[in-house]
Amino acid sequence: MENEAQSEAEPNPKKLKMSTTSASDDEDIDNTLTPQEGPSPTPQKKPRYKRRKVAIFFAYCGVGYQGMQKNPGAKTIEGDLEEALFHAGAVPEQDRGCPKRFDFARSARTDKGVSAVGQVVSGRFYIDPPDLVQRLNSILPPQIRIFGYKRVTGSFSAKKFCDRRRYVYLIPVFALDPSCHRDRESVLASLGSENELVKCVECSERGRKVEGIMGKRNFDSKVRSDAVTVESGISSNNTPAEMIQEKIINSSTGVNGSNDNGDLSNETSKELQNGAPEIEKKFEEDKVEIQNESQDEVKIVKKSEFYYGKEEERFNRILKYYQGTHNFHNFTTRTKAEDPSAQRYIISFEAKTTVNVEGIEFVKCEVVGQSFMLHQIRKMIGLAVAIMRNIAPESLIETAFRQDVNINVPMAPEVGLYLDECFFSSYNQKWKDSHEELSMRTYAEEAENFKMQYIYSHIASTEFKEGVVALWLHSLNYRNYSDLRFVTNNIRNDAENLEVGAKDGEKV
After folding, report:
1. Which SS3 state, helix, strand or coil, does residue 115 take?
2. Are 164 and 345 in contact (CB under 8 A)?
3. Rounded Cα distance, 502 and 506, in Å
4. Quick one: signal sequence residues (predicted)?
5. What pairs with residue 167 in β-bridges?
């Protein structure tokens, strides 16, 4: 009785103790005063809430964010999520901004601009009163959507209990075509030959789109000549020499001394003009027939015969090199070859399906692994694309796994990458009789809708408007990546050989 009286006289709310190893699923939270005994009026009793350990499933489009993990001074997914949890009542005032106090853990860290469909975080939250998911979604921006949460054991950690992770990279089909979006030197060298290359000047230097070149977007083939540059567009009012001169200027903007506006310098223009008669002679020898076309029309004489179905087997063979346990020190940054963390296990890597989004055809590359390092997936895709475009040999992948070799591996843009799902197989097997299964099955329909509405549409529209992948393809040459000429039997870092090889490569 004395203890009760003392408690009523001096209320002393006890600070919550957090533990990551507690065996209890729940933690009682009493925010009320004990009703007084006797005739004195009883204060209104407040709800009694419990803090519960849960796993939250959600998705986000990474555009505009500096990655998943919270970073002071940067806009991150985790930062916005923590604030939403506080304002929705899932995190108390005293724990705001201190994720360790509510046992917060994430299944995967995504880089800047990378999206996710099946991201999972865990922690101890107030999930009462109901409608926590609705409250969170009303606070968060539309590009971050909470699907739901599931009760887990007290010792659960979204990071430690995640067995494997599946990422998807959408690469445009045209990126695998060796003749599409070549570097300026290669295009210039091909002029007048039987294998002229398409040159999209604007996407090469300014990021502007050239309609009809990017993917399989529907368009009218009769377009204005100043809107598209194709490999054999000719006008009936020009002589062969004038046609070639116009084509050279339109097809080699910025070569050997271009100014800021993308125009050729006087010296380069004169040099190209001197070569026009030879090219005109070549046209005469090949008996190029000039059809009667209006001045504002362009004729597409030759199109690339590349299609993914024909090259699917080769691309999957290249991706299969990554499967198994390897040293991926060349596929990340700031990790040395002798560092144990460089050893990673890739369960599967395949690209067997294509998707068409807003008129652009993409190859869906799915990679499943235990864990991944910074930029690892983007660099694996980058080297695979370089091999498909015949810039590097297949043996270079195995060479890159060697601890005594350091190679500058090209890195694909971040826009096409997203986290597809996190798996908790061992946990589900152990606790299948007492807890819900942790998987995306429950939220499959919502996740697919979000993927199409935000992630896929963003990837396609970004490529169409900015040509991110197209611009990156122009950088895939021996001038920027001289290491791409390395082969398994010759790994010597001979500067002279690399210089000669680079010059030879520019003439391909």
Report:
1. strand
2. no
3. 6
4. none
5. 367, 419
Q: Which of 95, 103, 111, 420 is catalytic?
A: 111
- The residue written with tokens 């690209």 in the block is 351
Active site annotation includes 111: yes
Answer whether the bond into residue 129 is a cis peptide, omega within 30°: yes
Residue in this structure with the two tokens 């910074």, named with its chain if needed: 374
Structure tokens at 38: 């006797």
Angle at 393 between CA 389 and CA 396, to 5 degrees: 120
Q: What count of residues does the chain have?
A: 508
Q: Give Cα 198 distance to the centre of its chain.
A: 26
As to burial, measured by CB atoms within 10 angstroms (0-12 exposed, 13-18 middle, 19+ buried), residue 96 is middle
Render each residue's pLDDT in the chain as its tens digit; 508 residues.
444 444 444 444 444 333 333 334 555 444 433 444 445 555 556 566 789 999 999 999 999 999 999 998 999 999 999 999 999 999 999 999 999 999 999 999 999 999 999 999 999 999 988 899 999 999 999 999 999 999 999 999 999 999 999 999 999 999 999 888 877 677 777 777 767 665 565 454 554 444 444 333 333 333 323 322 323 332 333 433 333 334 433 433 333 333 433 333 444 444 434 444 443 443 343 333 333 333 333 333 345 678 899 999 999 999 999 999 999 999 999 899 999 999 999 999 999 999 999 999 999 999 999 999 999 999 999 999 999 999 999 999 999 999 999 999 999 999 999 999 999 999 999 999 999 999 999 999 999 999 999 999 999 999 888 889 988 998 898 888 999 987 544 444 443 444 444 444 443 3
Calculate the CA 320 to chain-centre distance: 20
Q: Residue 361 — φ and ψ, nearest 5°?
A: -90, 130
Distance in angstroms (rounded) separating the CA atoms of residues 296 and 225: 6
> Is 315 in contact with 176 (CB distance < 8 Å)?
yes
Q: Which two tokens stand for residue 424?
A: 């908790």
- The rounded distance, in Å, linking the Cα atoms of 438 and 120 is 10
Q: How many angstroms separate the first and last alpha carbons of the chain?
A: 94
Beta bridge partners of residue 126, listed in sequence order: 51
Residues facing residue 105 across a β-bridge: 122
Asked if 348 and 423 touch (Cβ cutoff 8 Å), the reply is: no
User: Which residues, in sequence order, are CB contacts of 105 under 8 Å at separation 6+?
Assistant: 121, 122, 123, 157, 158, 159, 160
Distance between CA atoms of residues 468 and 470, nearest Å: 6
